[in-house]
Amino acid sequence: MTDPMTVDFWFDPACPWAWMTSRWMLEVQQVREVRTVFHVMSLAVLNEGRDLEPDYREAIDKAWLGARACIGVERQYGSEKLLEFYTALGTRYHMGKQSATVETIRDALQECGLDPEIADSAATDTWDEEVRASHDEGMAPVGLDVGTPVLHINGKALFGPVISPAPKGEEAGELFDGVAEVTAYAGFFELKRTRTVGPIFD
């Protein structure tokens, strides 16, 4: 029996598109020999110094909180607990439409049995250096003109896939087969079409 393929997945918990791709990868793990390792990137770091619309700038600035909390969980508990926390936090953000606040972070931590003081530390710059290091590790191979999610697969980095809704079962596996195939080709850079739907959470 061969070892499962490792896919490294970089996410910002504030991004609904990354959330759906993460749920897809969890489906993929059920139908393919794949292990997904979750890592933190930061839309706040990515957009530093960029001229953004005021509403988007406000949302991006608030994204620091979730990214810091995720790094705090990863540093204190490891990558498996990071996934558990991401699921609890993402469910609140994207399904429950809860705001990015210290209270929301604390509730997600408590659901997972994690140190609730991480929420208070996430409101400071305690983990900013670690956030930046994780962000750079994920983004450097794919470039800075993309966002989240980012996959590292077959020794290559790729933005996406951006999907809505996330496929399930064998359909999820078939999509992964295609993504893995195109990513393996060193000269592959981009596929894209205009989004005709927003995030569909199911």
Word description of this protein:
With 202 residues, this protein is an alpha+beta fold. It has helices at residues 16-31, 43-46, 54-77, 79-95, 102-111, 117-122, 128-139, 169-184; strands at residues 5-11, 34-40, 150-153, 156-159. Strands 2-1-3-4 form a four-stranded mixed β-sheet. Helix 1 links the parallel strand 1 (5-11) and strand 2. Helix 1 crosses helix 8 and helix 4 packs across helix 5 (102-111). The longest helix is centred in the first third of the chain and has 24 residues, at 54-77. The radius of gyration is 16 Å and the shape is globular. The termini are far apart.
Largest sheet: 4 strands, mixed
Number of helices: 8
The N- to C-terminal Cα distance equals: 34 Å
Mean pLDDT: 94
Strand order of the largest sheet: 2-1-3-4
Helix/strand order: EHEHHHHHHEEH
Parts with pLDDT < 50 across at least 5 consecutive residues:
none
Radius of gyration: 16 Å
Task: Briefly note the structural class of the backbone.
Answer: alpha+beta
Helicity range: 40-55%
What is the 3D form?
A: globular
How many strand segments?
4
Strand content: 5-15%
- Quaternary class: single chain
